[in-house]
Specification:
By secondary structure, the chain is mainly β. The protein has one helix and eight strands. The chain has one domain (13-111): Thrombin, subunit H (Beta Barrel).
Length: 112
């Protein structure tokens, strides 16, 4: 952990949550989880597509329980543009031709 000149100790607390990607666009993703995630939570989402990890940072903008599904939640997350588009980012991959990226068959986990 980094200690600032004021004597404060800064740290990061994280947890890993398995998610299912329901929908993705250049601005964000709709995810499904088994645990609620607070609006305003910032995290990273890693998807494995064709054996390659794609990573992007995001912020949760909404989280609602899925009607009639018990403890299942729909989470709306917006991409944070912390870096440029590359072939290693989810945002960059969304610009690829559809036949090169099969998001419908992706297992996704993220640390949010």
């Amino acid at each position: 952990m980094k200690q600032h000149t004021t004597g404060e100790v800064m740290g990061v607390l994280g947890r890993e949550i398995e998610v299912r990607v329901l929908n993705c666009s250049p601005s964000g993703c709709l995810l499904e989880t088994n645990a609620p995630i607070d609006v305003g939570t910032v995290g990273s989402l890693t998807l494995t597509v064709d054996g390659h990890d794609l990573l992007d940072h995001l912020v949760v903008v909404r989280c609602h329980p899925k009607q009639g599904a018990g403890s299942v939640y729909h989470v709306g997350a917006q991409f944070l543009w912390l870096g440029s588009l590359t072939r290693h980012t989810l945002r960059g991959a969304l610009g690829r031709p559809p036949e090169r990226m099969a998001l419908h068959a992706v297992a996704a986990t993220g640390a949010i």
